[in-house]
Description:
Elements: H1 12-25, H2 30-49, H3 52-57, H4 67-73, H5 85-96, E1 99-110, E2 115-125, H6 140-146, E3 152-164, E4 167-170, H7 173-180, E5 199-204, E6 213-215, E7 219-226, E8 236-241, E9 244-248, E10 255-259, E11 277-284, E12 290-299, E13 309-312, E14 316-318, E15 321-325, E16 329-334, H8 336-339, E17 347-353, E18 356-360, E19 370-371, E20 385-393, E21 399-408, E22 426-428, H9 434-441, E23 444-446, E24 454-455, E25 462-467, E26 474-481, E27 492-499, E28 502-503, E29 509-514, E30 522-529, E31 538-544
Amino acid sequence: MRRERGKKLISVAMAIVMASAALASCSSGGKADDEILDLAKEGVKDVVDRKISKLAKISTSDFDDVKKDWAEDLDFSNGSGRYSNDYATVFSAISETIDYSIDEDSVESSTKYGEGRVRVEFTIADFEELFDDEEAMNDADSFVDALSSCSDKDIELWFDFELEGDTWFISNSEEILTNLYSFREKRIVFVPDLTRSSYGTQWYFTDDYSGDTYTNAHSIDCELYFYDNSDSSSVYYTVSYEGTLLYTSGAGSTEAYYTTTDPNAPLDPEMGTLATGEYTVAFYDGSDRLLEETSCTVVTSVPGPCDYIRWYSENEAWGTFALYDDAYVIDPDLNLSYINDYTYTDYYYTVTFNGEQVYVSGDGEYMGYYYSDYQDGDSFYLEPGIYEISFYDVATDEHVVTAWAIVLNDGVGADGTYLGAFLGLNVVGMNTPANMYYDFLGAYWCSDSEEGSILTNANTLTYRIPVSEDYGSLDYTFIYSADGDEYEPYSYVTGSDYAEVQYDDQGNMYYEFTYDGTVEEGYYRITVEADNAVDFSVFSVCQVQ
Length: 545
C-alpha cells in the first residue's frame, strides 16, 4: 500500500539541500539504486507514451488527484474534445518526436530517508523553428511534415522517488509532465496559403451591376469570395487610388468597403463624392501573399432622374423604368447614394395603376415596395399593366422622382401582347442628362389625323420629341410586329436613320422621326440613340388599328 506524502515542516530550499546532502552521504546503492532505475525506466516509458493510468500506479498517491485531468490533457486524438483537430494533430506529432536517455550514473537513493532520484535527458523537436516557415505554417499537415527538419531541443528532468514501505514510487510525476509537455501552452497559428484555393472577386452596386464603374459614388464595395471552404480569417485588403495606398484593413476582411468617411479618402470638392479616378483593391492572405487585385473606375457627373432609382427583383431595368414578369412584388428604391448619401430618408411614395392611385405609403419610406397582396384579386402575381411609383419629400411634399414598372403575366401585358405592355410610355434609358430625360418623356406619336399611342386608320406614322436644346444627330430605328407577341419583335425592320433638330414657326425645337414604310395594322417600336446613350436614349411603342 502507498502512504500519503507528509507535509514538509521545513522550507523547500532547505529540504532540497538536506535531501541532496543525505543522498550524497547516505546513498544505499546496490538494490535500492537498481529498484529506482527499473522504476525510472518504467515511468519514463509511461510518460513518453502518455499512459497516465499506468503512471499513476507507480506514482505517489497525490497524483491520483490529477491523473484524470492529465489523461484528458494528453489525449491528442482528433475528436477528443480537449483540442481542435489541428492542435490535436500537431501535439500528437510533436510528442512522437520525444526521445530520452536515462543517466544511470546519476542515480541516488537513501533507504534511510526514503528518497531517491535519477536524471533523464529528453530530446524533442524544436518546432518553434518552423514559425517563420510559410510553407510549414500553411496548415497542420504541412507543419507535421516539416517537423523532421527541426533540430532537437534538450530537456533535462530529475525523476524523484519516495519509499513507501518496501516499495519505491515516483513522487514528482506532475512536475515531469508539466515540463515535458509544456508545448501545449504554445499558441500555434496556421496561415493557409490561400493562393492554392479557388476564389474570385465581385464589385457591388456599380452602374450596371456586373461592371466596375461607379458614378457619383460615396462608397465602393468589392468582395473576395471562395468557391471552397478555405479559412479566410487571415485575409486582409488594401485600397489604393491612382497608385497611392489609402487604406489597409485588419485580418478577417474579405469585403473591401471604402467610403468618403474612411481615412485618406480623396473627395470631389463639389459633389462630396469619391474623387474621379481608378481605385484598386488588393486582397492578401496572412502571409502577405497576393490573392487578387482588381480595379474600379469612379466618375462624377451631375445626377439625372434616371440615377435616382435602383430596382430590385426586376427582369430588366432602364433607369426609372423596369420590366417585371410574373412578379408578386415591384421594388424601386430611391438611390440615396446619389441624392444625399443616406443622411435623409424621410420620404413617402404613391402607386398609380393604370391611371388610378391605389396606394400611399407611410412616412419614412424610400423603398417603393408594392405587393400583389395589396390588390383585390386572388392571383399570386401582380396584375399586368403599368405601375407608376412617385416619391415625395415628407417635409415639403416636393416631388423627387417617378418610376414606372411594366408588369407582364406569362410574358404579355394587359392586352395580351408583349409590345402592347409599353403603350403610352416613353422609356428613357440610362445615363440621360436631366434636360434630355424630361424632353424625351414628353415625346408622342401622331399620324396625319390624330395623336396618341393607339392610332386608327393611320396613313402616316411619326414620333415627335419637343426639346429644350439641340442634342445633335439622333439615330433611330423602327421595328414592326403584326401581332406584338414576339419578345424580340424583328418581323420587319425598316433600317436605321438619323434626325436633326428642327424649328417650328414659333422657334420651338423638336425632333421628328417618320416611318417610311407602308403603315399597316400592328405594333411599331422606335428606338432613339443620342451620342451619350447606354444601349438607347428612349424607346416607345404605338399600335395602329
